[in-house]
Amino acid sequence: MGAGIAQSFAAAGSAVTVVESGERAAAAALDRIAIGLKRAAERGRLPEPAERVLGRITTTATVDGLPATADLVVEAVPEDAALKARMLTAAEQAVGATAVLATNTSSLSITELASVLTRPGRFLGMHFFNPVPASELIELVFAPQTDAETLSAALGWTHALGKKDVVVKDSPGFASSRLGVALGLEAIRMVEEGVAEPEAIDDAMRLGYKHPMGPLRLTDLVGLDVRLAIAEHLHATLGGRFAPPRLLRDKVARGELGRKTGQGFYSWR
Question: How far is CA 48 from the centre of its chain?
Fold first, then answer.
């Protein structure tokens, strides 16, 4: 997600600093971005040479290395509230007072994350979707502390990226994850109960309801571990209807996390 976000902003003309700990991780991030830019160029979706866009991206090993003049910081670490809070606190100290801080989270409370910041009015959620460069949507999530100017700035960046916005009040799962996870969990229960094979369930939604992708294939792309973490958060905040199915827990325990491990509800090898 971080590589996709960096690629999108660089392609839109921004100077981008990517924070990655260690030279190997930084090199891997730049490689992912370079591959993404090459694919975009091959599809005619890049208005300038990929090398020029890549040249607008630099890396730093620590959050302290962020430029003090940055206008926007997008945190995209894993869905761990404590980790996100640490990264956001460090970022707030590294950049200027007018910079906007954003978290790319699919379910964690924007209000709770804002509470650790000195300037909570300059903070909001910017929920990107995978793959970021090709996705049309950014879900903007505002907390009670979020200033109107901060939301306005985020809308401007969203449109500058050529994407559409959905503005949502902070609540568990926002709009996209709450609905998407509900559908995904029910699809997993159907597999668990032997109602149908994953391909049949996905085809029912893709062909019958015109979803671009079925809920089980999407779960593989998102990552079963990520889906489980979101479901557990929604279960804790919204109740039993979001209880993770046993099949989901078992697959995560076996390391069947979807595309990133080569096996989920589908084989990706």
Answer: 26
Please, are residues 180 and 214 in contact by the beta-carbon 8 Å criterion?
no
Contact 103, 110 (CB under 8 A): yes
Query: What's the full length of the chain, in residues?
Result: 269
Side-by-side strand order, sheet with 137-142: 72-75, 100-103, 123-128, 137-142, 164-169
Q: Tell me how far CA of residue 268 lies from CA of 196, 199, 238, in angstroms.
A: 20, 14, 33
Three-state secondary structure call for residue 54: helix
Output the 3-class SS for 196-258.
Answer: CCHHHHHHHHHHHCCCCCCHHHHHHHHCHHHHHHHHHHHHHHHCHHHCCCHHHHHHHHCCCCE
* Tokens found for residue 10: 């660089």
What's the CA gap between 163 and 135, in Å, rounded? 8
What are the CA-CA distances from residue 20 to residues 25, 26, 27, 58, 60 (Å)?
6, 5, 9, 10, 6
Q: What Å distances lie between residue 46 and 13, 17, 138, CA to CA?
A: 11, 20, 20
Residue type, 196: A
The tens place of each residue's pLDDT in the chain, 269 residues long, gives 899 999 999 999 999 999 998 889 999 999 999 999 999 999 999 989 999 999 999 999 999 999 999 999 999 998 899 999 999 999 999 999 999 999 999 889 999 999 999 999 999 999 999 889 999 999 999 999 999 999 999 999 999 999 999 999 999 999 999 999 999 999 999 999 999 999 999 999 999 999 999 999 999 998 999 999 999 999 999 999 999 999 999 999 999 999 999 999 999 98
How many Cα atoms occupy the beta-carbon half-sphere of 188 within 13 Å?
Answer: 27
Q: How many angstroms separate the CA atoms of 31 and 33, rounded?
A: 5
Strand partners, 16: 57
